[in-house]
């Protein structure tokens, strides 16, 4: 995804980067949980960050700040992550 090179996009790209990297950081933390509740909590946070990442991607797309043929692929990937995290979170809550 290519972002226009203007200062106003800096804050938005920083938010996208923060939420996107937080997904993996929380999934990684969940690999060594202190309890099932801790695992569920970390995965739930990762899910929230995935939803936030999708929000930022949608904002970039709808405001035409991002110029990319790959936007569709990015949305597919974040939607797949959301589906996986929903399944994992629901499964861990019901166990």
Which terms summarize this structure?
95 residues, mainly alpha, de novo design (two linked rop proteins), 3 helices, 2 strands
What is the gist of this entry?
The protein is mainly alpha-helical and 95 residues long. Helix content is 78%, strand content 4%. The protein has one domain: de novo design (two linked rop proteins) (Up-down Bundle), CATH 1.20.1440.
Describe the structure.
- The protein is mainly α.
- It has a single domain, classed as 23S rRNA-intervening sequence (de novo design (two linked rop proteins)), CATH 1.20.1440.
- Helices cover 78% and strands 4% of the residues.
- The protein contains three helices and two strands; from the N terminus they run βααβα.
- The chain has a two-stranded antiparallel sheet.
- Helix 1 (8-30) packs antiparallel against helix 2 (36-62) and helix 2 (36-62) runs antiparallel to helix 3.
- The longest helix is centred in the middle third of the chain and has 27 residues, at 36-62.
- The radius of gyration is 15 Å and the shape is elongated.
- The N and C termini lie far apart (39 Å).
- The mean pLDDT is 88.
Biggest sheet overview: 2 strands, antiparallel
Number of strands: 2
CATH topology label: de novo design (two linked rop proteins)
> What is the approximate shape?
elongated
Give the radius of gyration: 15 Å
Q: Structural class of the helices, strands and pairings? A: mainly alpha
Number of domains as seen in the coordinates: 1
The helix content, as a percent range, equals over 70%
Order of strands in the sheet with the most strands? 1-2
Please, what is the CATH homologous superfamily?
23S rRNA-intervening sequence
Beta-strand content estimate: under 5%
Oligomer category: single chain
Our measurement of the CA-to-CA distance between the termini, rounded to an integer number of angstroms, reads 39 Å
CATH architecture: Up-down Bundle
Query: What is the CATH top level name?
Result: Mainly Alpha
SSE order: EHHEH
Number of helices: 3
| Poorly predicted regions | none
Average pLDDT: 88
């Amino acid at each position: 995804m290519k972002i226009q090179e203007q200062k106003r996009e800096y804050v938005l790209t920083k938010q996208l980067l923060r939420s996107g990297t937080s997904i993996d950081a929380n999934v990684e933390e969940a690999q060594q949980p202190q309890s099932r509740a801790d695992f569920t909590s970390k995965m739930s946070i990762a899910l929230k960050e995935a939803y936030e990442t999708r929000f930022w991607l949608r904002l970039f797309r709808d405001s035409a700040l991002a110029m990319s043929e790959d936007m569709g692929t990015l949305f597919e990937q974040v939607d797949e992550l959301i589906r996986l995290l929903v399944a994992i979170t629901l499964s861990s809550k019901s166990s």
